[in-house]
Design a protein that fits this description.
The protein has two domains: 200 residues, Preprotein translocase SecY subunit (Orthogonal Bundle), CATH 1.10.3370.10; 207 residues, Preprotein translocase SecY subunit (Orthogonal Bundle). It has 18 helices and five strands. Belongs to the SecY/SEC61-alpha family.
């Protein structure tokens, strides 16, 4: 505890780090404030009463989007779409970078190419928002917004125009906030905005679970709450392991000669860190999007009763069929997304150019094959672990846990919170290592910054 307090003091004593943290917190507060502003033409008090009387969720991708936006999606806020259009645009650009030569060229152009890709992503974000905005406005009644909440009427032209403009503006503003946090603050801005949206639903979810177990003769009482908290911490530890686990591939560099001088780096070993879960939470997001199709088929009028019955089985969030298919899709997408984001051929070429080699493996094609085989071997258990965490909320519901609280037992929400927290802490540690050596290490002296 004493070391933790000392570390906090060291963080606050570094002006640059202190300012970055304050800027990050300020922007996050602004984002949360904007998420509470209801679209003009809607009665916020009526929506709030409707949400209080219907605290449960239907599960699926709509609940995931609502969690990512901190409740703004179900509240019909000006930030209802949040950073989701930007995330969609980023995924599209990343996937298109495999097939479109122009984007491939931009990736190789360094900083200038990255700026152009960022600009393309921004414009695509606006385009996606202009498509998602009208769809969201039209689906407000099906999302639980009562008819009496529409002051001007849902079909009013002015309501549609102002809502679409504000939804687009809200997404652009969220994107701008995320980029500013990344540039001026600490951590990845977009990820932090998603995380703060998820955390915003934590108090109410826990309060509902606590009330269900302790009031009106609820099953379990305080003891059951304690057991749930212990299990929750165990799941968090499992998530930390999944996010941080790596397979170290030994790497060695040959002896180099520069202008007649021999630089002896032979024998100095390094390693290539291959992550157990290189795909992150993307497989869950992709799989969740596909699992939304059965829900759409259930409500479609043109489908037969047989198709509807099968679709209803797979649309049940806690059903066996849903979770088996969901886990299978996650495993498939884990391999797919890892193959896209971890180009072993480029890694092998880079190692060869720098004069490095993996002991016992020839540079070039053999190195590529070796890295690809290692990556496939570690991706399989990583994908199974990820799938188990993703379907864990469905299991805890069977034990009487409220659905809103069960979402924090795994899946996208918990993995994002753990991943973002680890990334942010690592960035803070980097600043501390540069200025306060004693803040993190057992030995050494405190280094003073040079003005």
């Amino acid at each position: 505890m004493k070391k933790f307090i000392e570390t906090v003091k060291n963080i606050w004593s570094i002006e640059e780090l202190r300012n970055k943290i304050l800027i990050t917190l300020s922007f996050m507060v602004i984002y949360r404030f904007a998420a509470q502003v209801t679209l003009p033409g809607l009665d916020g008090s009526v929506i709030a009463d409707s949400l209080n009387s219907n605290s449960g969720g239907a599960g699926g991708i709509l609940d995931m989007i609502n969690m990512f936006t901190g409740g703004g999606f179900s509240r019909a806020s000006v930030m209802a779409l949040g950073v989701m259009p930007y995330i969609s645009a980023s995924i599209v650009v990343q996937l298109m970078g495999i097939a479109i030569p122009y984007l491939q060229k931009l990736k190789k152009d360094g900083e200038s190419g990255n700026k152009k890709i960022t600009q393309i992503t921004r414009w695509l974000t606006i385009g996606i928002t202009l498509v998602q905005g009208p769809a969201y406005i039209a689906s407000l009644p099906s999302l639980g917004i009562p008819a009496e909440a529409f002051i001007m009427g849902q079909g009013n032209t002015l309501f549609w125009i102002t809502s679409l403009v504000l939804l687009t503006t809200g997404s652009i503003f969220a994107m701008w906030l995320g980029e500013k946090i990344t540039d001026k603050g600490i951590g990845n801005g977009i990820s932090l905005l998603i995380m703060i949206g998820i955390i915003a639903g934590f108090p109410s979810a826990f309060a509902q679970e606590f009330a269900s177990k302790t009031t009106n003769g609820g099953a379990g009482g305080i003891m059951m709450i304690l057991i749930e908290i212990i299990v929750w911490f165990a799941v968090i530890l499992a998530c930390v392991y999944l996010v941080t686990a790596i397979r170290k591939v030994a790497l060695q560099y040959a002896r180099k000669t520069v202008a007649g001088t021999v630089t002896d780096v032979a024998g100095s070993r390094q390693y290539i860190p291959l992550k157990l879960n290189a795909a992150g939470v993307m497989p869950i997001i992709f799989a969740q999007a596909i699992m939304f199709v059965p829900s759409a088929l259930v409500t479609a009028d043109f489908t037969s009763e047989g198709v509807k019955s099968v679709a209803a089985m797979f649309a049940d969030f806690s059903g066996v069929g849903y979770n088996v298919l969901f886990a299978t899709l996650i495993i498939i997408f884990s391999f797919f997304y890892t193959a896209i984001t971890v180009p072993t051929n480029e890694m092998a070429a880079s190692i060869k150019r720098s004069g490095g080699f993996i002991p016992g493996i020839r540079p070039g094609k053999e190195t590529d094959n070796y890295l690809d085989r290692i990556l496939s071997l570690i991706t399989f258990p990583g994908s199974i672990f990820l799938a188990l965490l993703a379907i864990l909320p469905a299991f805890v519901i069977k034990f009487g846990v409220q659905q809103s609280w069960s979402m924090f037992y795994g899946g996208t929400s918990l993995l994002i919170m753990v991943g973002v927290a680890i990334d942010t802490i690592q960035q803070i540690n980097s600043h501390l290592l540069n200025r306060h050596y004693d803040g993190l290490m057992k030995t050494g002296t405190k280094r003073k910054s040079v003005a």
